[in-house]
Amino acid sequence: MSRSERFLRACRGEAADCTPVWFMRQAGRYMKAYQEIRARYPLMEMFRTPGLAAEITLQPVRAFSIDAAIIFADILLPLEGMGIGFEFVESRGPVIARPVRSAADIEALRVADPEEDLGYVLEAVRNVRAEIDGKVPLIGFAGAPFTLAGYAIEGGGSPNHLLTKRVMYEQPEAWDLLMDKIVRTLVPFLKAQVRAGAQAVQLFDSWVGCLDPSDYARYVAPHTRRIFRELRAEAIVSIHFGTGTAGLLPFMAEAGGDVLGVDWRLPLGEAWRKAGPGVHIQGNLDPAALLAPREVLVRKAVEVLDSAAGRPGHIFNLGHGILPGTPEDSVRALADLVHERSAGLSRTQPSAAT
Amino acid sequence: MSRSERFLRACRGEAADCTPVWFMRQAGRYMKAYQEIRARYPLMEMFRTPGLAAEITLQPVRAFSIDAAIIFADILLPLEGMGIGFEFVESRGPVIARPVRSAADIEALRVADPEEDLGYVLEAVRNVRAEIDGKVPLIGFAGAPFTLAGYAIEGGGSPNHLLTKRVMYEQPEAWDLLMDKIVRTLVPFLKAQVRAGAQAVQLFDSWVGCLDPSDYARYVAPHTRRIFRELRAEAIVSIHFGTGTAGLLPFMAEAGGDVLGVDWRLPLGEAWRKAGPGVHIQGNLDPAALLAPREVLVRKAVEVLDSAAGRPGHIFNLGHGILPGTPEDSVRALADLVHERSAGLSRTQPSAAT
């Protein structure tokens, strides 16, 4: 089996010759090749220049034995076309100049158009696909409705998403309208990424773990579910990712996604039980392990593989993005280790035989 | 049954006339009476002046129908006597001037003496107990070893505790020494609070949820377990609290505590199953609910009570501390609601009959 098939087979729960592996934020600031580009361009210009975004997407595919590429972009890009401008401020992350908090703010938002507002992402997807077709599959992505609404309301990152929860609790109709506009932005954008060449899409609900299960089921799941239904209707392979979601997994699984992405806070076996039948699992090494001494990295990676026990439908990943300062050598060693160790596991698992 | 008995009965898993309720950070900045004191004194002076700390401890006991007092102090206070100075910086929280990161830094630390270094807390405990004896029980507390080590190493709050994890992974002997010195500081301090009049103690492992279960079991549990063993040997009632701990609960329960404090990210029934037999549960309303419209607060509080189903051994609390800006009226209404609704629940549960 070639490197091109492992990832998509695992997304369908099919056995592969070994466990596929890719890393969230695999294209980015820990790589020397990336830093050379970053030194010459502002971040937003890198996203908006398809040639640069494609080159950055390809850097980790060339450097490491990973089984998928993910387009170099940002989860927040869809907000701009909705009328929610932002910039990336050094050491603070994204900052939204005019946060969206009132019903009037929300009513004034547009639904973004994928070609007009996000055509540069689609062009980068086309460039990358032309380059890697047949080698490794390409993943498109966007932020999930809750996480995008959270940034829009808080004006940036937040420790507790209190303003976001207040909009949910105090202005439920305005909240639903905001989520609806985000959904109507995301569905065409994700489909357009697939038309442009992405073979799977990941929805990042990075901050949804601040919610209790009841609020998730009431205020988030109905909106997120619409996206996954639309994707499934077109047989688009999808990954549904969040962090701090131990209590939310049954509801996230019900909302949709062929694969649930989980963080390191829950053993994989438990994640599988909570996700229920027919859902596959991506994760879940703590990104801090990549900054640990090699023997600690190996021990922790093997623990993740052992907890998946060679089960088909496991995609090895981190529980969140690669951290700045991560040594490239550790990323390389981890990708190789996953392949070597899991090939052994698969051979001993009759149920995983290809 | 009087207000004085509910809390301690629940800590032992015994039925009570209704579910006891108290709130983390119930004494603090959301109260007008507190703000009047705060306007006149720096925060550290308030902790160090037993008369002020006692008065602040009593304010919510007078204002609301809560079933326990908790001494006004800070989880970090034990660090100072170890040689780790800090100050509270407006809008940033605690800042440690010289973070502890090398083996030499850790070797230089002292073990604090409860009477010499923390006598002001003990004096405040004595003052409060004299005032409320027979009315409501008094809870003493401290930060747990991991959370204190995290502050000491990071130099303050941290989004991912990466420096802390690096000490764990790269310098495991230094890590164990740091944890050992914290344990030898905490055990006498917690026992001294009980000798001074506290009828239970809570260990706040507020940030332990950043760890995966394997790291928790390896680097944290052996140290935390020593504390709970020492408390149990003296029949001291103890609460073991953390946030984001869905995956850690079985290990936290094994490390000890009569009661596990859990946050809102996991339904109470699931927390009970994970904690195993003989462990009681405190929690778990999202503190954001106290800033919601009354009908949302009521719905969410009832969901928490329903998920406990009148089971003996439930202590109603938030999943983390009361947030600034919380209306006092909401706190009052919540305490009353817990008593009224749970009295109804208990009556329908034969197993909960007193």
Can you put this structure into words, describing what you see?
Two copies of one chain form a homodimer. Helix content of chain A is 51%, strand content 12%. Chain A has a domain at 47-57 and 68-261: TIM Barrel (Alpha-Beta Barrel), CATH 3.20.20. The first copy, chain A, is an alpha/beta fold. The model of chain A is unreliable at 347-354 (pLDDT under 50). Chain A has 15 helices and nine strands. In chain A, helix 4 runs parallel beside helix 7 (114-132), helix 7 packs parallel to helix 10 and helix 9 packs across helix 10 (172-196). Chain A has helices at 6-11, 32-38, 43-48, 50-63, 77-82, 103-107, 114-132, 145-154, 162-170, 172-196, 213-233, 249-255, 268-275, 294-308, 328-348; strands at residues 69-70, 86-89, 93-96, 138-143, 200-205, 238-242, 259-261, 280-285, 314-318. Chains A and B meet through helix 9, helix 11 and helix 14 of A and helix 9, helix 11 and helix 14 of B.
Strands of the widest sheet of chain A, in order across it, are: 1-4-5-6-7-8-9
Question: What is the ordering of alpha helices and beta strands of chain A?
Answer: HHHHEHEEHHEHHHEHEHEHEHEH
Question: What structural category do the secondary elements of chain A indicate?
Answer: alpha/beta
What's the total count of β strands of chain A? 9
Beta content of chain A comes to 5-15%
**Integer-rounded radius of gyration of chain A:** 19 Å
Largest sheet of chain A: 7 strands, parallel
Main interface by residue count = A-B, 34 and 34 residues
Shape of chain A: globular
Unreliably modeled segments of chain A = 347-354
CATH domain class of the domain at 47-57 and 68-261 in chain A: Alpha Beta
> What fraction, in percent, of the residue positions of chain A are helical?
40-55%
